Amino acid sequence: MYVAVKGGEAAIANAHRLLADRRRGDRSLPAIGIDQIVAQLALAVDRVMAEASLYDRTLAALAVRQSRGDMIEAIFLLRAYRTTLPRFGYSKPVDTARMKIERRVSATYKDLPGGQLLGPTFDYTHRLLDPSLLTDEAVEEPTLREAETGRVMRVSEILAQEGLIEGDGEMPEDHEIGDLTREPMEFPMTRDLRLQALARGDEGFLLALGYSTQRGYGRNHPFTGEIRIGEVEVEFDVPELGFAVSLGTIQLTECQMVNQFKGSSKAPPQFTRGYGLVFGQSERKAMSMSLVDRALRAEELGEDITAPAQDEEFVISHADNVQSTGFVEHLKLPHYVDFQAELDLVRRMRNEFEANRIGGDDTIKEAAE
């Protein structure tokens, strides 16, 4: 329990005013607008939506502005807002094969059915500061082509035609999909709940774990089967109507990693999958998620659990940045009573130590005499 100090309320109120002042910054400059954040800081907005588990660009941009660009604080704000919203039901599973694709690349097949589509990416840029961005210079219009329509084959389907890759994550018929926002976290988890936790997990944490699996801490030997970014339709079953209605479209990033598997007593040698699906354009997050997803399937595939990324309880318990931030940052708040108790204990222990040391010296002197 934290003890309020005298005058603390006035200090906190002024700290809030100071925060608002710093947020606004130089009054001679125009205030940044929500529409500017949505349009020009889109990747920051996408991360906030993904890790807050709420798809709303305007609210995510508001959180970015309110937090002064502190991404985890923005995620915290948006997730707190999400808890106030009513729930009407569950949408139907989205069909990413029918995605209106903006970007689609594969590191396993050069010639894909439907072709590779680079889209907007940093992959081929030189990591050099661009002085032209210091001013609002004109931007050249990109070359566009007609959007792909209909179903676009996945890379995993090419491998599946030869029976070289495991099935696409089928669940038992009587399995009910879990809901991490409504159910307490319990271990061991089913894969659907694990993927929910990873989807809202901290990008940096998952990136570090994914990298560790590539360096040998998790038996991952991955190939990027496919990354696709685009818009998918979200549908909702309305019982009164007897059919599904469209709620609109959302942008998603999907990643399927193809991993080696030597086989076991139950399964032949084949490729296995790691899967990532994230709101917005979030390639790094989707790739990291798919690497960690595959690592967490170690027990399912009969592999030894030898690395942190394979330890479900370790990964899931520490992936949530809101929970992690709260536990770390609470150390800034008053712990006066606790510390005074520790201080008193250390003083008494030191006094006892000194007394024993002096008594020991006297014993040594007597023995010498």
UniProtKB/TrEMBL annotation:
Please verify whether the record's keywords include Lyase: yes
Where on the tree of life does the source sit, at the highest rank? Bacteria
One Pfam family it belongs to? PhnI
Gene Ontology biological process terms, A to Z: organic phosphonate metabolic process
The protein's UniProt keywords, in alphabetical order, are: Lyase
Tell whether Lyase is among the UniProt keywords.
yes
InterPro entries, alphabetically? PhnI (IPR008773)
**One GO molecular-function entry:** lyase activity
Q: What is this protein called?
A: Carbon-phosphorus lyase complex subunit PhnI
Annotated organism of origin:
Rhizobium altiplani
Q: What is the lineage of its organism?
A: Bacteria, Pseudomonadati, Pseudomonadota, Alphaproteobacteria, Hyphomicrobiales
